Amino acid sequence: MKKLLALSACAVTILLALPGVAQVRFIPPPEPYPFSTAVAVDGILYISGEIGTGPDGKLVEGFEAQARQTMDNIATTLKAQRLTMDDVFKCTVYLAHIDRWADFNKIYVPYFKAGRLPARSAVGANGLAEGALMEVECWARIPKAPASK
C-alpha cells in the first residue's frame, strides 16, 4: 500500500511538471483547517474565504473591525505570495446581514486603487464560519516572471 501511494505521488508530481498540464501549488493554512489558505493554478491565486480573525486566531469584535481584519488577512495572504491588492481581479463577499452592504463597501473600497476595483459579487449568507459577520474570497493574478536573458 505504501509503495502504491509513493508511486501515485510520483505520478502526480511528474504529471504536474509536464508542459500543458496545470501547475498547482497549495498554500497551507496556519491552523489545522480542512482547506488551503490559497491555491495557485496557472497564474491565478485562489484565496479561500477569509474572515476577521486576528493574529490570535479569534474573531475580532464588531462589524467594522471584522471587515478591516478580513481585508487585512487577504492582504497578508497576497503579500506572502509577493502579490498586492492590485493583483486582485475578482472577489465574492458573503455578508451575514446584507443590509450592511454599504457599510462593508466603505471599508472594502479603500483597499484598492481608484479605478481598479475587482469584479465582485455580494451575497447575504446565514451561518458563516465561527459566527463571522462576513467572509471574502478573492482571485488574484500571478504576474509572469520576466524572461531571463
Quick structural overview:
With 149 residues, this protein is an alpha+beta fold. The protein is 28% helix and 25% strand.
Largest sheet: 6 strands, mixed
Percentage of residues in helical conformation: 25-40%
Please give the count of helices: 3
Ends apart, CA distance between termini: 46 Å
CATH overall fold name of the domain at 38-141: 60s Ribosomal Protein L30, Chain: A
> Structural class, please?
alpha+beta
Q: Report strand order across the widest sheet.
A: 1-2-3-6-4-5
Strand runs, count: 6
The quaternary organization reads as single chain
**CATH domain class of the domain at 38-141:** Alpha Beta
In the CATH hierarchy, what is the architecture of the domain at 38-141 at level 2?
2-Layer Sandwich
Return the string of H and E elements.
HEEEHEHEE
CATH superfamily of the domain at 38-141: RutC-like
Output mean pLDDT: 88
Shape: globular
Strand content: 15-25%
Uncertain segments are 1-16
How would you sum up this structure, described in words?
The chain is α+β, with helices and mostly antiparallel strands and 149 residues long. The protein has a domain of 104 residues: RutC-like (60s Ribosomal Protein L30, Chain: A, 2-Layer Sandwich). The chain contains 3 helices and 6 strands. The longest helix is centred in the middle third of the chain and has 18 residues. The N terminus is likely disordered.
